[in-house]
Amino acid sequence: MESFGRIIAAHRKEKKMSQIELAAALTNYGVTVRNTAVSSWEKNTSLPNVVQFLALCKILDITDIYNEFIGYCREKDPLAGLNEEGRERALEYISLLESSDKYRKKETTVIPFIREIKLFDLPASAGRGEFLDSDDYTMIEVGPEVPPSAEFGVRIKGNSMEPRFIDGQIVFVQPTRQVENGEIGIFYHNGNAYCKKMMSTKDGNYLISLNKEYNPIRVRKQDSFLVFGKVVG
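-> structure tokens emitted (233 positions)
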């Protein structure tokens, strides 16, 4: 690897610029240095920062930075060993190859991720969950927008969960027998099925509607209560 300072000095002299002129040219790129800084770089007593270095390369027309400062590396740049005319010819040939269907890189076709899950209507009567084991469902296709943990969907009825969930909207559910405080789930309570938010307080457990027009449903120890799953989408 050749000396950094020697490379900069050689390109500066090729441009027929003095160190003072190079320092002045750097100001056009927002770099304010004196000619003594340029002298230090060329003597390898100091190095420019990234902004200064890129401005130097721009002013001195150093385009092949890797091979200029690191050295020839065919694996990094197969054109590095060619002169200017050779590089132009190589690029022309590459352009011809790209225009040919035979050698043009084929675009990868992304196949959308599609899967099928069961869709149930939220029943007025849950029957302790029998509706999830019945044949009264529709298979629907879902894409990657539905979390992988969701195993079935439920169509909401009514406006008790507005504004987040509206009448007729499908929510996607991960089967579980427990939801955390503040999570929304699908529940069985005393013969009815609900989509509600679980809320645990020091006074007890409640099923909460997001629509403030509906009162909380208290879950007591003597109640018939089940968790069907957690709403995940």
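Residues 84-98 form the longest helix (15 residues).
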